[in-house]
Amino acid sequence: MSNTSELKADSAPLAADAKKQAGWRDYLELTKPNVVLLLLLTALVGMCLATETWVAWQILIPALAGIGLMSGSAAAINHLVDRHIDARMARTLRRPLPSGSLSPKRVLSFAAIIGGLGFAILALWVNMLTAWLTFASLVGYAFIYTMYLKRATPQNIVIGGLAGAAPPLLGWTAVTNEIHPFAIMLVMIVFTWTPPHFWALAVHRAKDYAKAEIPMLPVTHGIEFTKTCILLYTILLGIICLLPYLIGMSGVIYLIGSSILSIWFLGYAWKLKFAPSKLTAFKMFKFSIWQLMALFILLLVDHYVGPAPVLMG
Ligand code: HEM
Ligand SMILES: CC(C)=CCC/C(C)=C/CC/C(C)=C/COP(=O)(O)OP(=O)(O)O
């Protein structure tokens, strides 16, 4: 979004071209609900790992609601800022803004309302540290990544990935009101997972990104270089996934499960680099989502079911 007059100028043609009436499904789509659900799982695990017992519902409910609403708001701002490039890519052209079912003004109001509500919930019922850290993540994704990094550098998703990686820390601070090294380690897992997650899709959709002139790595440095980077990040992720066990935060259930997932993911990265079929990149992208979900469920199961680990420090 460059300024208010652009928003006004945009509203008219989009509203006039509207092909269908806006409904609640359009608003839901703006929030990237599947992404937010996975973000909330990582936040929930951050909350649970921060305490030896169950998380009190008086914190659990407002923390998940606040983080979810602010993430949804960030996603809606991403739709607003990216509406022109979304209109140029096959994957995104049917979204509510490029398809004309919602106007930019409505999207801005929606993002402001749910974002403000999310912040108020965190500030009133959780704590100010979590409220401000979540706000920083919103700014990181909706403004720094979407408005600047995405259009400026092929390292966009590496740096921007920090915002999407923050929820385990947000969950942890919601419960303890302090930043703990264990929470940072959970952030590091999601942070290192993001490049193979996204670049696998970018390899599959490289022509789309080139058409929209977005400097994603496969566009600027080619498919082969991107596949090498995916392989290297996948190895790094495998190493980082060992840390929860090595520092005594998680036990053998986690170690065995996460090692299987890491080897599996590495198998995809290896195939993508050395023996790809047309669909390997897309299958790896899909697998990355299941892998992160399974990894965080493992952390949770290990925490509550496994034998108590010996904690450092
Ligand atoms: C800068 C960081 C990230 C980038 C650039 C990125 C990029 C993408 C893209 C382009 C898609 C396809 C969306 C679509 O087809 O509509 C996607 C899907 C997805 N991403 Fe990411 N992602 C990032 C971080 C994350 C994080 C942190 C999570 C969760 C912890 C996540 C979870 C998902 C999920 C669940 C989907 C599937 C959505 C669906 O099927 O509706 N992503 N991601
Ligand atoms: C408060 C908080 C935790 C904020 C983070 C919220 C959030 C929704 C992070 C997910 C990152 C993501 C889906 C990036 C893709 O954007 P893209 O523009 O590259 O993808 P697109 O082309 O599919 O829109």
Automatic annotation (TrEMBL):
<dbReference type="InterPro" id="IPR030470">
    <property type="entry name" value="UbiA_prenylTrfase_CS"/>
</dbReference>
<feature type="transmembrane region" description="Helical">
    <location>
        <begin position="253"/>
        <end position="272"/>
    </location>
</feature>
<feature type="transmembrane region" description="Helical">
    <location>
        <begin position="284"/>
        <end position="305"/>
    </location>
</feature>
<feature type="transmembrane region" description="Helical">
    <location>
        <begin position="63"/>
        <end position="81"/>
    </location>
</feature>
<comment type="function">
    <text>Converts heme B (protoheme IX) to heme O by substitution of the vinyl group on carbon 2 of heme B porphyrin ring with a hydroxyethyl farnesyl side group.</text>
</comment>
<dbReference type="Pfam" id="PF01040">
    <property type="entry name" value="UbiA"/>
</dbReference>
<feature type="transmembrane region" description="Helical">
    <location>
        <begin position="225"/>
        <end position="247"/>
    </location>
</feature>
<keyword id="KW-0997">Cell inner membrane</keyword>
<keyword id="KW-0808">Transferase</keyword>
<dbReference type="InterPro" id="IPR000537">
    <property type="entry name" value="UbiA_prenyltransferase"/>
</dbReference>
<feature type="transmembrane region" description="Helical">
    <location>
        <begin position="181"/>
        <end position="204"/>
    </location>
</feature>
<keyword id="KW-0472">Membrane</keyword>
<dbReference type="InterPro" id="IPR006369">
    <property type="entry name" value="Protohaem_IX_farnesylTrfase"/>
</dbReference>
<dbReference type="GO" id="GO:0048034">
    <property type="term" value="P:heme O biosynthetic process"/>
</dbReference>
<comment type="similarity">
    <text>Belongs to the UbiA prenyltransferase family. Protoheme IX farnesyltransferase subfamily.</text>
</comment>
<dbReference type="GO" id="GO:0008495">
    <property type="term" value="F:protoheme IX farnesyltransferase activity"/>
</dbReference>
<feature type="transmembrane region" description="Helical">
    <location>
        <begin position="132"/>
        <end position="149"/>
    </location>
</feature>
<dbReference type="InterPro" id="IPR044878">
    <property type="entry name" value="UbiA_sf"/>
</dbReference>
<keyword id="KW-0812">Transmembrane</keyword>
<feature type="transmembrane region" description="Helical">
    <location>
        <begin position="35"/>
        <end position="57"/>
    </location>
</feature>
<keyword id="KW-0350">Heme biosynthesis</keyword>
<dbReference type="GO" id="GO:0005886">
    <property type="term" value="C:plasma membrane"/>
</dbReference>
<protein>
    <recommendedName>
        <fullName>Protoheme IX farnesyltransferase</fullName>
        <ecNumber>2.5.1.141</ecNumber>
    </recommendedName>
</protein>
<keyword id="KW-1133">Transmembrane helix</keyword>
<feature type="transmembrane region" description="Helical">
    <location>
        <begin position="107"/>
        <end position="126"/>
    </location>
</feature>
<keyword id="KW-1003">Cell membrane</keyword>
<feature type="transmembrane region" description="Helical">
    <location>
        <begin position="156"/>
        <end position="175"/>
    </location>
</feature>
<comment type="pathway">
    <text>Porphyrin-containing compound metabolism; heme O biosynthesis; heme O from protoheme: step 1/1.</text>
</comment>
